[in-house]
Description:
The protein is α/β, with parallel strands linked by helices. Among the domains are: 108-154 and 166-294, ANL, N-terminal domain (Rossmann fold); 546-673, ANL, C-terminal domain (GMP Synthetase, Chain A, domain 3, 2-Layer Sandwich), CATH 3.30.300.30.
Amino acid sequence: MRTGPIASQRFFLSRGLSTDSYLLNLMSDAIESVLHEDRLFAPAAEFSARANISSQAQYEAMWQRAKDDPTGFWGDLATKELDWFQPFEHVMEGDMPDTKWFTGGKINASYQCLDRHLKTARKNKAAIIWEGEPGDTRTLTYQQLHHEVCKFANVLQKLGAEAGDRITLYMPMVPELAIAMLACARIGATHSIIFGGFSADAIADRNNDAQAKLVVTADGGWRRGKEIPLKANVDKSLEKSPSVEKVVVLRRTGGDVDMVPDRDYWWHDLMEGESADHEAAQLDSEHPLFILYTSGSTGKPKGVLHTTAGYMLGAQMTTRWVFDLKDEDTYWCTADIGWVTGHSYIVYGPLANGATSVMYEGAPNWPDEGRFWEIIEKYRVNIFYTAPTAIRAFIKWGDQWPQKYDLSSLRLLGSVGEPINPEAWMWYHRTIGGERCPIVDTWWQTETGGIMISPLPGVTATKPGSCTMPLPGVVPAVVNEQGEPLGLNEGGLLVMTQPWPHMLRTLYGDHERFVDVYFGKFGGKYYFAGDGARRDKDGYYWVLGRVDDVINVSGHRLSTMEVESALVSHPLVAEAAVVGFPHELKGEGICCFVIPKGEIPADEAKKELIKHVREQIGALATPDQVRFTTALPKTRSGKIMRRLLRDIAAGKESAGDTTTLEDFSVLAKLREDTEG
Ligand code: PRX
């Protein structure tokens, strides 16, 4: 096994280094080591011959046109690919950060995903093939999905929902989640999906921020054979989120729930006898389609807002380009719809393309570690999109699991959520892809709406660990702190220099924060969302991880500050500092340094704090380590020096500069307290 590149890359990626120390590190060993990664995998000629984008020349021509003439490029695509009730007048108005797309046009995302296919042979094609964790299955054709969506759109309207209202969806991975999303889109209500791993408090915060009027949930969902009590969490959240007037409850697990009269309604009661006729609302291109909360380095979660036409065009085109979707493909993205990947690449992108999208409710290791491979064999999945954190778990579970199943239907593999370690890439390539499937390592973010930098499977020769080249319409750069472009092999900050249709439009209710967070750093000139990167000698992008105080746990962003706030809200805690550290499966684990109010308590208290964080934020924020200490390293101005804590959490000697440390004895004390 080659350890050089991995060891150094992991060291690097998982530390979420602060900008300065990160850049410093970039200049030292990390770049050197990463450069050892010179394996190149060119697409097979047969793959290229059939691919939606099939040659380097075609890619380059598209990319260049989109760069030089974005209006012509995106305008032509929008006219051809989107179904308009009323054509747009302008392709693009205004510069970043406030670019508007396809203004004057009227459109509907639900119509784009459903109605227009009903006039074609796709009418009776499977839109969603669903598999529940206990093994129950359902297939919905485009016609059937349309039927359900129309009924639920009528239900929502009868409950008083109108265009512009915000509706929270807190649901398991069941077809009704997609139905509810598309029904919201159909009437022009803005959905805000909250991942089922979030706690009641997190739901309440999001309900309040969005001023949600309705919540759609389920009694529960299945995860590793256990029931997740979704409705009970919603009940608790509603004590703190008064804007919510009504709750629709899907019966999924059959578990006990409290139904509050005149507030809570069963999904099946409302749907019974409801009409399946519903005319999709004709909405402005810039009508808000959804809000999705994501973590930032400071303050409360950010309500990333996406609008209709631009987002749909991005989701649709990137799905087709990157996954090379063909009508006959069975496509499976294993993400949860509670994250952006599920929005764009389980629901909106695949359905807009008239694809067959597989959806699985549960865990990859239930009832055993072969579940994913069993699903691939069962449905003859052709395209499989998952995350490095899952791939690392598969490797750990052993090759015997995938080897038990026939994976020969696969023709393309994808990865998303964090940098993929080259060895994990190689395993994916060999063991799952049988050395014949191109791998698309897709870099993007909640904010970007769709994939930005990724191989095109029929074109790009891939390098394990690199997301390679920007898609047409994406013009990135690697710059220094002053915004000056850096040369090849120089590590810096990844920015976008041109607007794109599927970018976020604002942070819900806080436009100032939006401008500040994403555009403030470079005076409005560039979009910057916190990643470091470098380009290699061939111009390939290597994303090196976050440069802010955001940690990437299992491919999902968590703010260290949110975890700190949760800790400090416990009566035992005086002060807390949270950092990421390299974690074998999760990519980054969560390490909490805690100064208790009184004496250092017994180890039992650690469990208590872990439980408290879970209650405050949710299971996804479960700390991996709690370390009690009597002091934290601070600068003279009182800022916690997290990079020093990162070193300690990672079990390393501090190599970085400590000259700004206020009290040198703190470091020794800290090591003594937490390691001794
Ligand atoms: O740091 C990057 C990492 O995940 C962040 C975006 O997280 P989120 O908005 O939760 O969206 C995840 C799914 C799109 C990015 O800022 N990231 C995502 N994909 C990659 C990646 N880092 C490296 N390579 C990737 N392919």
